[in-house]
Amino acid sequence: MKGTTEIIFDKLVYSCAFEKYRGYEEFIPEHFLGFQLSGETHAFSAGGNTVIKENSIVLVKRNQLIRTIKYPNKDGKYQFLSITLDNETLRQYAMENRIVLENKTESKHKLFFETDDFLYAYFLSLSPYINKTKETTPKLANLKIREALELILQSNPGLKNILFDFAEPYKIDLEEFMNQNYMFNVSVEAFARLTGRSVSGFKRDFAKVFHTTPKKWLKERRLDEAMYLIKQKKEKPADFYLDLGFENLSHFYYAFKQKFGITTTEI
C-alpha cells in the first residue's frame, strides 16, 4: 500500500503512507492548517519548494497549486493531518468577532508556526477521531475549526489579514501565470479561478494570448520542455514525465513521437 487519505470528518483529513509516495497535483481552494506527525512532505509550487519536517505545523493559503512527495521516517511511517479553514466558518467568525483587516503585507505561500504546547496539544486532541475511539458531530467539527483559528491568531495576530481576506483572485497576467504553472495537471476550471476569470473568460483570453486552446497549448508546452530536458539535460522521460503533467509514460511517448516525428531514444 503506497498511501491512503481518509476524511475523518467534514474538514479533517488524515494521510498515511509506508513508502515514498507521490501525491497528485492539487488545487487548494481554501486555507488549511496542517501538522506533520511523522515523516516529511516535500511540496512544490510556482512560489517555490518547501520541506515540511516532522512535528512542523504549517498554514497553507488558499487558491494555489501544489504537488507533493511524501517521505516516511526511518521507522517507515508517514502521517499528515490537516484541518480545512473553510470560508463559511471564517466569515462567521470574522463577523462575530468584528475582525478588521489592516494594511496587507506580502507573505510567502506557506507559513510555519513554532510547535508550541497549545498547537501541539490541539492536534493531539484530534487523535481520538483518527483512531475512531470518538465520534464527532457537525457542531463539534465546527468548534474544532474555531479552536484552530483562536490558536493561530494567538500565535500570530497578523495572520488575520490572510485568513479573513475574502477577495477573489484578481485578473492576473495570463501568459506569465501559464508559463509558471503549465506543469500542473489540473482542470481548466482551476486555472480559470487562479487567474481571476470565469471559465468562458479564461478560454476567451487564452485564445487572444496564445492563439489556441488551453488543452493544445499545455500539451505543446510540456512536450517542448520534455525535448529540452532530454536533449540538453540528458534526462530520462521516466524521471520527469509526471513532473510535466503527463499522466502515464506510454501517453507521453505517443505524444512525443506524434509531435517531433522521432522517439526519445532517437535523439
UniProtKB/TrEMBL annotation:
Pfam families: ExsA_N (PF22200), HTH_18 (PF12833). It comes from the Bacteria. Keywords: DNA-binding, Transcription, Transcription regulation. Gene3D superfamilies: Homeodomain-like. Residues 172-267 form the HTH araC/xylS-type domain. SUPFAM superfamilies: Homeodomain-like. One of its GO terms (molecular function) is sequence-specific DNA binding. This is AraC-type DNA-binding protein. It comes from Sinomicrobium oceani.
